[in-house]
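Example 4.3 (complexes with small molecules)
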Amino acid sequence: MQLAVEQPELHKYPPYQGTSQLRSAASDFFDRRFGLRPDPDRQVLVTLGSKEAMAHLALAFVDPGDVVIVPDPGYPVYATWAKYCGAQVYRMPLRRENGFLPDLDAIPAEIARRAKLLWVNYPNNPTAALATGDFYDRLAAFALHQSS
Ligand SMILES: Cc1ncc(COP(=O)(O)O)c(C=O)c1O
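Answer. The structure with pyridoxal-5'-phosphate bound is encoded below.
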């Protein structure tokens, strides 16, 4: 950190879109981890942490009258920004007996049909539960079923 502080060219705000080195490093990470190489100039968005990205995701996808499905307990930003966008928040309980995974079958069909976003995060905050690949397969099938 001291070495960086000593470089006058770093005594300024970074560009809003992030430096090209940062965006390229993010693209390289995606390639190593997922075998995908997003275009650093068009497909990598640098934000002030994930909180800002979540807010913008809601602004991009959610319209008044939509439903946003959030885990309960869950990170407050999911529901807060759904409300800012005029959406109805549907809370899906994370219960110990289900390994703190949501019961997708318990979501009413009408809620699922109107949902624009369904938030999950694993390893989960605040339960520390982990999700399996099988869970994500079921979640993807659930989402695809709603959009078909
Ligand atoms: C589940 C979860 N998601 C996102 C965030 C936001 O993290 P940040 O904006 O620092 O990336 C937090 C912060 O506590 C969190 O608990």
